[in-house]
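Bump. Still looking for All-trans-retinol 13,14-reductase C-alpha cells.
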Amino acid sequence: MVLNMLKALPRVLAGLLCRSGLLLRFVPFCHLATRSLRDVVDGLTTNPELRAVLCYIFPTYGTLPSKTSFSMHSLLVNHFLQGAWYPKGGSGEIAFHTINVIRKTGGNVLGRAPVQKILLDSQGRACGVSVKKGQDLVNIYAPVIISDAGIFNTYERLLPAEARALPGIQSQLRLATHGEGGFSVFVGLNGSREELGLEATNYYLYLGNDLDEIMNRYLSASREEAAKLIPFIFITCPSAKDPTWDTRYPGKSTISILTFAKYEWFEEWKDEQVNKRGDDYEDLKKAFVDVIMQAVFKLYPRIEDRIEYISGGTPLTNQHYIASAKGEFYGMDHNITRLQAETITTLRPQTDVPNLYLTGQDTSVAGFMGAMHGAFMCAGAVLKRNIYIDLMWLKRRTDAAKSTKKD
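Sorry for the wait, here they are.
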C-alpha cells in the first residue's frame, strides 16, 4: 500500500514526505524497510534453526537476509500466507492469453524482433523503437513508449548517451544495483509423476542454517572452487503442478533446479556465441550441474536412470535468453535501499524522457505479482488515473454479478 501510494503521489509531495521523517516515525513498513531481515530475526530468537526457517525463502527475491529489508521479506511472506497457484497448461498460458487481449484491442506482439534502441525526436522526446528484423533494423513509431526491459537495459543500453545523462535518470541509476546472477538446470524425464515419486511442491535445500555465512562463503569463492561449495538449491517439478500435463505429455516429467552464481565466474565467455563457448566453459558448467544433480538424486532417487534431457544455464544463458544485464534472475537487487521511501519515490514509471515510461518488476518488486503491480502503476501514469480504483470497482461489479447468478 505504501509502495503504491508514494509512487502515485506527485514527486514533489512524495519527496516532502520522505524528508519530513513522518513516514519513518508513523509508518511501520517504512521503518522496517531500513532494517535488514537478519537484524530483525536475530532480535526475535537466538535459535539458529528457527532463524533459518524464518528466512529460508529469501531466494524468491534473490537477496541475502543481511542485505535485504525486513519489509521486503514481509511482502513475500504475506503474499504466500494464503497459498500459491500454478497456471493450468504452464506459464506459457500467461503470455498466450495476454497476447490475445493485446491483439483484440488493435495491438500486436512481435517475436524475434529485439529492440535495439529507443528513438528520440529533435526535442528529446521518445517517439519509437528500432527493432531487429533479420539483419535489418525497422523503426516503429508511437506516441508513448513503455519499456519492461528493466532499468539497466532501458537506460544503459537502449537510450542514447545524451538522454542517459539526464539528472532524473542518473538519480534512478544511483539507487539501482544489479541482483545476483543465477544458475539453472532443466531436466526432462521418462516416467510419470507417480512412477518417479515427484511432488507438486518446492524444495529449498541448504547446507547449513547460517544462511548468510554459507552463501557469502560460496559467492566469494573462485570459480574453480565455487561448484564444490554450492550451499543452496531450489527444486521444483512443473509437470507435477500442472493438472493438464499428463494429458498433453503422458509418461513424461520435468524438474527445474535453480541456484545463485556470480556473473564474474563466467564473464570470460560473454562475447562468445551461444552454444559455442568452448570446452572450458562447458566443463565449468558441467561441474555445477553434476554437484546440483547429486543433491536432486537424494531427494528423488528414482529419477537417476530416467533422464532423457538435461541442460545447465549460467548467468550468460540468462543474459542471452531473457536479456538480464548481468545474468540476474530478478533485475534490480532487492537490497535494503530498494524499499526505502526515497527509492520508492524516485523509481517510478515516469522518466525524464518525455513519452517514455517504465513498467515491470523494477518499478515495483520481483515476480509475476510485482511486475503486474508495476504495470498497474505505469498504466495509471500514462492514463493519468488511479487504476487501483478501477480495479476495486471491477471487483465489486464482478462479485455482484456472481451473487446475482447464485440467487
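The chain has a mean pLDDT of 95.

Edit: fixed formatting.
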